[in-house]
Amino acid sequence: MTEHDRSLRRTALLVSTMASFLTPFMASALNVAMPVVAKEFSLSAVALGWVPTAYMLAAAMFLVPFGRLADIVGRKRVFVSGVAVFGLGSLLSALAPTGHFFIASRAVQGVGGAMVFGTGMAILTSVFPARERGRAIGINTAAVYVGLSSGPVVGGFLTHSFGWRSVLWVTLPMALAVFLVTSLKLKGEWAEARGEGFDWRGSLAYGLGLVCLMSGFSRLPSLLGLSLTAAGLAALSGFVLIEIRAPSPVFDLRLFRNNRIFAFSNLAALINYSATSAVSFLVSLYLQYIKGLPPQKAGLVLIAQPVVMAVCSPFAGRLSDKVEPRALASLGMGFTSLGLALFIFLGPGTPFPVIYGGLLLLGLGFGLFSSPNMNAIMGSVERRHYGLASASVGTMRLAGGMLSAGVTMMIFALFMGRAPIEPSVYPLFLKGLRAAFTLFALICAGGIFASLARGDRGPSGDAGGGPA
Description:
The protein is mainly alpha-helical. 79% of the residues lie in helices and 0% in strands. It has 19 helices and no strands. The longest helix is centred in the first third of the chain and has 33 residues, at 130-162.
């Protein structure tokens, strides 16, 4: 290996890791500020749920199209543009005069996040050989969890000391640093699908379907909610038909039809994220409303989960280079299910050791699941599909996050209507909280079977049946 190769790998790992830290840091730091945001903008519990949902929905809408576009025009180009758009969204969010403007600005951040999610892991996979991929993915995944673990602490301190907008201001220099290092230091471009067409029709149907589906899901069981959900399902069905016939599909569905490891690893990711994405949001509300903790102390409690994730992920990533990823990932799903089950019993008098125990189990479970599952997905496809594979994982994460947030908003609407969370509705809030964690625990337990069903990879580390 030449010095140029070593330098390229170090730089790719650095920029990918910096970006992987930035977005979860901002999201988790904002989580502890949600009660303050709700008070300033007079947002109901359902409206407050749209703060993370707007980000996730926008990111999910654009992740697959940008992942495909990156394979065609260049992954570095899309990555750098995404960092710039994310920074712009952070600036607009920090300046937001109203709740609706704030939610719209979060959507701008989501578009930038999609451009980063769909390319960062693909760049990393492009420069690291298969025998070192798990280690690199483990380090990159650990950065995500360091962002998640430091976010609540830093976010709580900033919110308490300088107001919730300071959380967004601190992301701007970080975004600028990622932009400059990538632009100046990362030499090269990766576009193995250069010259192939871009499927605009499929991209439009995909985005429209997700918007309608998520908007409708959050309004169930009303007639409008049912209508939008049906429209979303129809648009996504149309998307599948378009992709089957398209000469250069935005999402090559043959990856799911012909590649068992790719298909079931993505399904396991979708189930896992659907069951876990709302945990920090829900536990943060519980700690501040029911336990009466200020934001900075709530952040110190929430840090337990991502700290364990950050410790486990590099170890699990390295181990997945040597043993079957499905064994590690399935074990992780089991621990996650146990952690979610503990939260079913949350109440006003729940002792803090029980809360910490649930968070530690979740951290251990997700730390064992994430890196091996990603390694299995990226190792199961050809190089020309790296951007798309990376985007598919990000889509599963964001779609799972949207489903998790959608279930949460629906349960809050059923139990509390659209009333703000205040002492008079605390009993109803707790009932909704328990219902959400019951459903999430059952979903995650079912996901163990999807994780086990993926099959074993071949001796080279690739999918047993070869790349699709």
